[in-house]
């Protein structure tokens, strides 16, 4: 068994069970296994060794210690996932899943004692594979990147554009891509924007990043077009950038440099901030619109915006927040919101894109609810320029939908 680079914590009041779990995990190849008898000890371990990849938590005796540990370690971003090592009622399980979701801790399921070696191994190894798939890492030392490091990373082109397809849910055809920032760190691998965007924002570097992305993105778009894929490209934009001086002129220059019309360029804005400086935002958005660019309302439904004010913006696309897909099976509210947004899009003749589609079941339910367009790991993860071009060659035919992993799966090919 190869070594598994995972940091695991066994939280159990029973010393015999701690020994049993440690023994199995060590035999599986886990090199860093720690034990704790209660929440205090568990937090001391975290303080000493850093973030925990998987915590095996016993929840008997009301599970106070485990819940407290989940709450404290999860809220500080120092716990990635949990496995519950006792059986739980459906009610407690629902609360636990919800709490884990809120805290961003993955809930890997329930494994009862005495431990079934195979089940535990399968759960731990598949999580390890998940961590080592192409997901970008969020460094777990609890700090954001420093200003110097971020400036150097931008200057040395370590922060680059990744592209994630937006696709037709029925055919799998890719209509466009969204640009997402990634830091290809020479030692730490591909890092998530959650690690460096707060620094980029704080240091006023969002526009520096955006204009780099415009170069990289428009160049990619031109290469895709030359291969026969006339895809659109979307850039994330924050309200403060929009109203910064010279913004429109710089976008005009960037488009002109690639001799591309604005029609296939979309700017994605969240509701945050738009309504604060409403008049200037509307004016700039109208200028972008006049250049032919599309305007998308990102994370739609996650804020509490006034629909009336939003409707004054010249937007051309609605991106429904991924939360509604995640929650689709936990009650009727999310479904009602999805249906309502589809109806709103139809009434305004504006396409609705649903984010965060990960499974075939979600895709089918969304199609049944009238959703036509989506984005999510089911179709493809964000990838760099060369990978995207190769992916398009393998998954799409110029002008026609070819067999995608997704529709091949539907047909039972995969
Ligand atoms: P966003 O604009 O809502 O982007 C979608 C996020 O969802 C991306 O996360 C993407 O990788 C992730 N995602 C896509 N499909 C799935 C899926 O099926 N399941 C799950 N769980 N996640 C999925 P990412 O790249 O970590 O970006 C997070 C946020 O950071 C973005 O949310 C956006 O608000 C911001 N961001 C990322 N890159 C940039 C950038 O270059 N500039 C600016 N201003 N913001 C950016
Ligand atoms: Ca976005
Ligand atoms: Ca979004």
TrEMBL record:
<protein>
    <submittedName>
        <fullName>Uncharacterized protein</fullName>
    </submittedName>
</protein>
<keyword id="KW-0597">Phosphoprotein</keyword>
<dbReference type="InterPro" id="IPR001789">
    <property type="entry name" value="Sig_transdc_resp-reg_receiver"/>
</dbReference>
<dbReference type="GO" id="GO:0000160">
    <property type="term" value="P:phosphorelay signal transduction system"/>
</dbReference>
<dbReference type="InterPro" id="IPR001633">
    <property type="entry name" value="EAL_dom"/>
</dbReference>
<dbReference type="InterPro" id="IPR011006">
    <property type="entry name" value="CheY-like_superfamily"/>
</dbReference>
<feature type="domain" description="Response regulatory">
    <location>
        <begin position="7"/>
        <end position="128"/>
    </location>
</feature>
<dbReference type="Pfam" id="PF00563">
    <property type="entry name" value="EAL"/>
</dbReference>
<feature type="modified residue" description="4-aspartylphosphate">
    <location>
        <position position="58"/>
    </location>
</feature>
<dbReference type="GO" id="GO:0071111">
    <property type="term" value="F:cyclic-guanylate-specific phosphodiesterase activity"/>
</dbReference>
<dbReference type="InterPro" id="IPR050706">
    <property type="entry name" value="Cyclic-di-GMP_PDE-like"/>
</dbReference>
<dbReference type="InterPro" id="IPR035919">
    <property type="entry name" value="EAL_sf"/>
</dbReference>
<feature type="domain" description="EAL">
    <location>
        <begin position="143"/>
        <end position="396"/>
    </location>
</feature>
